[in-house]
From TrEMBL:
<protein>
    <submittedName>
        <fullName>Efflux RND transporter periplasmic adaptor subunit</fullName>
    </submittedName>
</protein>
<dbReference type="InterPro" id="IPR050465">
    <property type="entry name" value="UPF0194_transport"/>
</dbReference>
<keyword id="KW-0175">Coiled coil</keyword>
<feature type="coiled-coil region">
    <location>
        <begin position="162"/>
        <end position="189"/>
    </location>
</feature>
<dbReference type="GO" id="GO:0030313">
    <property type="term" value="C:cell envelope"/>
</dbReference>
Length: 370
């Protein structure tokens, strides 16, 4: 490019020294404790009870959803529960009747065994006296064994029948529990249609309108505290690399100055600015979410910084900067990628030395001078 004559350029002499810059930023009070409430059902918004900005207590209904299909499901579930209870009652009655029958049969078998045992005892005595034959005695003995076998068989059969009946009863009871839980789930879903505030605070945003259709997971509203618990601040890009978590920050707002501490630094830079968050070191009287603040933080001192006063405030010094560099009698054109604006100074990289003179060919002389 054609270089301007030296007498036409506005030159700045580069100095070397220590800078103790103060970073200045702007932002607003905010809160990190906001909670987003989402729909649990596929439904339609039937009523908006609260609006954005209104105060709520935990449990207050914020909006009501409508889903007629849940009412139909609930009636079906209640009928199924009634049927399951009837089936359980029938199984229990059947079990009781089976137990009575089994007990009666067992008593008959036990009575027959006692009779046969008595006969056998009598035949044994008669056999010893020679009144009955050995054959008659053995027949009585066989009858007694058969009667005992019938008792044992009835006991085993009764146990098996009782076990089977108990299994059927347990299955019937399980169906009752299953249907009751189904009813309770649907009733809970219906109760969830009256969407409540999960905590006390202020309704921040309502994301739906009356009549809106929502699906599970769709946001309905957000709620958060009335008082801020952080400050969201934007600093010029040149300060971001000098900031550290834990640095003290002064927050100015509404005629007050409050102390805070740098809590986080965002790695994302937008339009020459970076975002940070600060937490309070005490109370923030009269502070409210959304209130604008100014922030001041003393950053690390820079030793042997090559710098000049910023020629024009408000210009974009981020990115590549064109300068004319005059070193002795030599003037050349230099592109700089890492010029930093700090506290009213431009700080240069190593390609600019103390004693050099710099000018900005893209800046009109009258603008620079003004």
């Amino acid at each position: 490019m054609a270089l301007p004559r030296a007498d036409e350029a506005l030159w700045y002499t580069v100095s070397a020294g220590t800078l103790e810059p103060t970073a200045m930023g702007t932002g607003q009070f905010a809160s990190a404790k906001q909670r987003l409430v989402a729909s649990r059902e596929a439904a339609t918004v039937g009523q908006l009870v609260r609006r954005s900005g209104e105060r709520v207590a935990v449990g207050d209904v914020v909006l009501r959803l409508e889903n007629p299909e849940l009412g139909i499901e609930l009636e079906d579930a209640r009928r199924a529960l009634t049927d399951a209870r009837d089936a359980f009652a029938a199984e229990r009655a059947s079990l009781a009747l089976d137990e009575i029958r089994a007990r009666s049969i067992l008593l008959e078998a036990q009575y027959e065994q006692e009779v046969k045992d008595a006969d056998l005892k009598a035949y044994r005595a008669l056999l010893e006296k020679g009144v009955v034959s050995r054959l008659q005695f053995e027949r009585a003995q066989a009858d007694a064994r058969l009667a005992q076998s019938r008792v044992e068989s009835q006991v085993a059969s009764g146990k098996a029948s009782a076990s089977l009946a108990q299994s059927r009863l347990a299955q019937a009871e399980a169906r009752v529990i299953q249907q009751r839980e189904r009813v309770e789930r649907i009733e809970g879903r219906i109760q969830d249609l009256a969407v409540q505030a999960p905590e006390s605070g202020v309704i921040k945003t309502v994301f739906v309108d009356l009549g809106s259709s929502v699906q599970p997971g769709n946001p309905l509203f957000s709620v958060g505290p009335e008082s801020p618990d952080l400050v969201a601040i934007e600093f010029p890009q040149g300060y971001i690399e000098s900031l550290r978590v834990g640095m003290p920050i002064e927050i100015s707002y509404n005629g007050r100055i409050a102390k805070a501490e740098l809590a986080s630094i965002s790695a994302d830079l937008r339009d020459g600015y970076g975002s940070v968050e600060a937490r309070p070191n005490g109370d923030w009287p009269t502070a409210s979410i959304g209130m604008v603040v100014r922030a001041t933080v003393r950053v690390d001192r820079i030793e042997d910084a090559k710098h000049i006063p910023v020629p024009v405030y408000g210009m974009d010094w981020s990115g590549r900067v064109e300068v004319l560099r005059k070193r002795g009698d030599i003037i050349d054109h230099v592109i700089l990628d890492d010029v930093v604006e700090l506290d009213g100074y431009l700080v240069f990289p190593t390609s600019i030395q103390a004693g050099d003179q710099v000018s900005f060919p893209s800046m009109p002389k009258r603008l620079a001078a003004g």
